Please model this.
Amino acid sequence: MPTDRPVNLEAIAFEAMRSYGFAPHFPRSVIREVEALSGGRLSHGGKTGIVDLRGLLWSSIDNIDSEDLDQIEVCEAKEDGSIRIRVAIADVDHFVPKDSHADRYAAHNGTSVYTGIVTFPMLPDHLSKDITSLLPGGDRLAVVLDFTVLPDGRTRPGGVYRALVRNKAKLVYEVIGAWFEGETGVPDSVTAVAGLEEQLLLSYEATLRLRHWRAEQGALALQTLEARPVVDAGVILDLEVQEQTAAHHLIEEFMVAANGTMVDFLSKAEVPMIQRIVRVPKYWDEIVRAAAELGEFLPPTPDAKALAIFLLRRKAADPERFPDLSLAVVKMLGYGEYVTLRPGGSPIGHFALAVTDYTHATAPNRRYADLIIQRILKAVLADEEVPYSLWELDEHAEWLTDRDLTAKKVERFVHKAAAAVLLQDRIGEEFEGLVTGASEKGTYVRLTEMPAEGRVMEGGEGLRVGWKVKVRLLMTDPEKAWIDFAFVERVKEKGEKREKGEKREK
Model:
C-alpha cells in the first residue's frame, strides 16, 4: 500500500526476530564477558596435542563480505592418486566455555540469522569476526578434520586433532567459481600466493570426484532461489539471486566429507553426539504424483537415486521452473532435524545428501550444534568425560531443530518485506510469473522479473502449479510482508496447446 512514510527494514528485521522467539540484542553480561577476552597471540608450546600447522598453504572461500570464517582448507596429492584434504575448524570452545554468558545466549538463539538487511550473529563480533575467525593475518587455534579422497570419489577418514593454523588467502565464491568454470583467467587473489593455483586446482579435482561419487549414491541436486537484498545506506535497491558456483560445490563437498570424518571419529570413541538427519520421506507418494504430472516415473518406495536422476532431467528440461520444483520436493521430503545418536546406535542418515553418518561440525561461530560437537570432540581428545548428558543432548537437539527452521522463517519474512518495499511504487502494474502454489491455503505466484512471491487475491480459481501467468499488483504491506496480486491471464508458451475444458481467457 503506497505511503509517504519511509519503511524501516531494520526495524522490521528486529521485530521479526522478537516475534519468532529470538533475542536480537546481546545482553550486557555477554558484551562485558567477550570484551574481556584477548586473542591472536597464541602458542602451541606446552599445549599437549596441539600441532603447529601454520606453515601449510591454508585458504578459505566464502562470500565477499564474510568475516566470521569458521573453516579453511588445504590439500596435497599422494603417490597412489588419492588427495589428502585437511579442513581446519575454528576452536570457538576455547573462548566460549560451556555455561558462560556467551554460551547461554548462543544456546538460546541456536544460530546466526542472515536477513540480508541485518545480520544477527550467534556470537558477538569481537569473537566471531576477530578472535575465533580464521581470517588471514593471525595465528588461530583450530580443530583439524583430516581425510583422503580416493580416485573413485570415496573418502577414507583420517585423523582428528587440534592445531595452530594461519590462513594465507581469503577467496570469494564468485571469483574462484568463474575461474574453475573457465569463464576467467587465474584471479589475482590466487596468483598473489605462491603455490595456491596448483593447490586449488587439486582441490577442484577432489571436488569433482566427491560430487560424482555422491551423485552415484543418490545425492539430490536441488536448486532453490536464494535472494539477498541489495542495500545501500539503508535503502533497498534490488533482490539479488545467489547462484551456486563450482566454488560453492567445493566447500559443500569438503564440508560433507569433513562432517562424515567427525562422525567416524566420535563413533569409534563410543560417545554420544548430535547428528543432522533428513528422514526417508513419509510423503514419497506425493513426490511420485508430482513426477507423474510431469510425465516422469518414480518407484512406489523411496529411492534417492531415482529421485536424483528425475531432478537432473527436470533441471535440463525446464530450468526456469526447476527452483520451484526443488522447493516443492524439499517440503515433501521434510526438513532437516537434529537428533541424539547414542553410542552403538543405528544412524538415521541424511536422505538428501545420500550419506548415513552426518553431523554439523564445521561452523561453530554460526551454529550452536557445531559448538556442542566441538566440545564432545575435545573431551575425547583430552581423554575426559563428555560434557553433556544424554538428556541434555536430547533437549538441545529438539530446541536447535526448532531454531533452525524458525531462523529460515525470519529470513523469508524479511526478504519478502524487502520485496514489498521494492514493489510499493508499482501498484497497478502487470507482471509475468509462475504459479508456485495452488491449494485451499491460497494461490501464490513468483515473479519472473525479480525473486518476489505474492498471493493471488483476485481471480486465482483454477490456476495450477507451474503455469506461467500474468498478474496485476494490487497492494504491498512491508510490515506484514504482504504482496497481493490479481490474476490477469495465462501466458501461453511456445508450442503449447489449449487443454481440454480450459476456458479461453478474456
Summary: The longest helix spans residues 390-423. The chain has a mean pLDDT of 89.
